[in-house]
Amino acid sequence: MFIGHYAVGFVLKKKSTDIPLWLLFVSVQFVDILAFLFVLLGIEKITYNPSTNPFLRTTLEYVPYSHSLFPNALLSLVVFVIFWKFKSKEWGITLSVGVFSHLFIDTLVHAGDMPFFHDSLKVGVGLWHFPWVSYLLELSVFFLSGYYLLKNYKKMKRHVVLIVLLSAGFSAMFFAPEGKVSSEVASITSLSLYAIFALLAYWSEHEIRH
Q: Per the domain annotation, does 124 fall within a domain?
């Protein structure tokens, strides 16, 4: 998923109000952040090819360190220990759940390119084979989670702006014409968007802090 990962961030924020939303946004996308950094470093490989289905333009060719089960479990454990030690057990549990949720959600949507063990046993339920279903489902989950977070807030204007901007970005990706880009350009673009979304999340929270 794309903005569907941020839906998890909204739900976790509702349960753990002390944790900044920007940090939750980083946690749910941390697996992809690592993947794109590894691509730029030549450690992993992701290819981008033209396709009428916008969700199938990205293929995980070789991502054993960022997207397989054991590294994700280990990464989640490290996140848990670090934040438990320096903040609290609640922070550790919440942020480790955010990190590990990425792998679970990706397995539902990816089309058989998720390595279960290192670079083997590749899995994926393949929801992305049905682009309109995937698009509408992801938007619906994102909007519902946003509503779940904000329904009791009195000041929510900035959060609404955040939700609208992320939805617009996701829709722009979905309706964008076919095109072939290099893995380096796509990786830098994705990392830039993650940074922008985290900054927007940081900006949005300042209106509702008490």
A: yes
